[in-house]
Amino acid sequence: MKKQNFIILWIFLFIAIFSAASHADEIELNYRLKWLFNTSVAGDIYAEAKGYFKDTGLKVNVREGSPEKNAINELELGHADFGVASADQVIRALDKGAKIIVLAQLFQVNPMQWIYRADQPEIKTLEDLKGRNIGITFGGNDETVMNTLFAKAGITKKDVKITGVRFDFTPFFKRDVEVWPVYFNSQGVILKSKLEKEGEKVYFFNPADFGVNFVANSVITSEKAWKSRPEIVKNFMAALLKGWEAAMDPANETDVLVAVKKLDKESNDELRRLQLIATRELIKPSGAVKIGTIDKEAWKQTETIMLTEKQIKQPVHVETILKN
Amino acid sequence: MLFRRIYQFLIVYSIGLISLLLIKAGLSLSDYVIPGFGLILETLGQVFDTYFLDVMNTMSVTVLGQCVSIAMAFGVGIAGRRSSWMGSFIKVTAYNIQAYPIVALAPIIFILLGDGFISRLLIASMICYFPLLLSVLGIMATPVEDIEHFYIITGRMRWQLEVKIRAFENLSKLTTVISGSATLAMAGTIVAEFIAANAGIGYSIRVALYQSDLAKILIALFMIGIIISIYQGCLETLGEQIKTRWSDSKGGNTR
Fold first, then answer.
1. Which residue ranges make up each domain of chain A?
2. Residue B81 pLDDT more than 80?
3. B120 lies in which domain range?
4. Under an 8 A CB cutoff, do A89 and B210 touch?
5. Is the whole-model pTM more than 0.90?
């Protein structure tokens, strides 16, 4: 009996030592997303789920974001090693002395768009915005984008009615607000499908169609990490972009939706599928576009817009921190 | 009382601010994470007027919300003071409902009533109301036997007299609870504004949060703190005066 116990103890010790040794080679990293787990972050989820990070010797904790969980703050405080931030966050942080590097631009088309019902005249030119009741999240980047569009078209605040909005869509459903800001691939899909069930068709108003290219989510790290751990940065990015490439491949759709569903239990299967299709249009608008490509001109335009809108005090030369 | 409130707040705020600046210096953080003192002052110059008006806007809802909640708490407290079936039913209901988080109900209120003044007032009143109610119920349900006994024996006891005796005999407790509830009413209003309203300092904090602008948030906190300190100081001073007059009229003894 004693001999048996002794052997079992040795087996346990062997397993413990072996598993500790196998994990010792892995480098643990924290990756802070910009928003909650949903199909907008399908590539991030898929890279982790398929073990792409593990294959490069990394153990990556992919963490949800929110307005309160800011990736740039976490990079500086050492709580995260990589993160996702929108261009306006990056440019604001540079203006205030933050040392960060942009490694990839995830969205080639900004998902920040406006939805409106198709029973209203289509917005074919910016002039068509006149006389409409437009929803804006005050302080959000949609405010900056809309102000730029107004300036471009010479529209004053007297020509339109602006209504401050939040996450509650009731004013849009009640038609109190006609043109409502949405993330095309998340809320846009939900609203479109709800209204279609009621027999209503919708249009999306995309600022990029009118020459305003305001960059959205991008992968960032600290300047310190970029300089001191180039191999880790390279491996992380290789695994992450591999995840995104695979997640955006229609052939992997079922697999991707299963991975997303494990973390996003709020939406139903059909909604997630539609959201994934919409996300694909924004991440890889054409076969020729390589995922993660940084559109330097769009970044420069974003900086110019923010400078004009007095959201930053001086030029930050954002092109100097774009590493792709 | 008023000045003591203000300098106590200034001490607490200064300690908080200095701690933040020490963390900033210790960890070599940029102004994006924790703004430097210069940036805070610069931002103060930019937003002072707007934020002052925002705080006053919030304060107006707070004062009104507090008045509503005091009236409601006294109404229910007086109705529930009896040891009858109805009295105990009101008490039990009040205790159970107060366990419900008002913040969770706030989005429903905004959906039903919109993001205007009424929603803010309702949420402020509800957050402030329940702690007040519990205190008022406690006070109103506890007889002041040595005084009430005389009126009961002589058959002169009426409910108005009973309420008056219990209120004035517990004036210290009541004024403390009412002045303390000002903070809750302010917090309630700010929570409401933060969640969904389109006005007030809570809304401005939300906008600053969207822009990750901690300097604006620190200024908002300063202005909220100073205004609520003044308001609480005024309430306490008023309470002291009422107590003194009551004490004088009784010949110098309050509980």
1. 26-109+215-321, 112-210
2. no
3. 2-250
4. no
5. no
